[in-house]
Design goal:
The protein is of the alpha+beta class and about 90 residues long. The protein is about 25% helix and about 35% strand. The protein has two helices and five strands, in the order ββββαβα. Strands 1-2-3-4-5 form a five-stranded mixed sheet, with helices on one face. It is globular.
Length: about 90
């Protein structure tokens, strides 16, 4: 399976999925007192169902947890990922 890279664009409150340097998706969030709420995720249609969405969600959650912020899934992709991987609801302590 091809691998994406991700960039965290904190000023735009999103993570961007890049394939060969080209953006193919995004994971949008808002920070609240409760944690980082992931409100939208999207992979462009020609790259859907290839595992890129899961890679993007995992990268965003890893970064969020590493920063000591609780991840909260509002969009269905993140909510489903957290339900299947309950260990991701724990926050890394630094």
């Amino acid at each position: 399976m091809a691998q994406i890279t991700t960039e965290h664009e904190s000023e735009r409150r999103r993570y961007v999925a890049l394939l060969d340097g080209e953006p193919i998706g995004e994971l949008v969030y808002k920070d609240t007192e409760e944690g980082r709420v992931f409100v939208h995720s999207e992979i462009v249609p020609e790259h859907e169902h290839l595992g890129f969405g899961t890679q993007l969600v995992r990268a965003g959650l890893d970064d969020t947890r590493g920063a000591g912020i609780k991840p909260i899934g509002q969009c269905s992709m993140v909510r489903n990922f957290l339900a299947e991987h309950p260990d991701y609801t724990r926050v890394d302590s630094r």
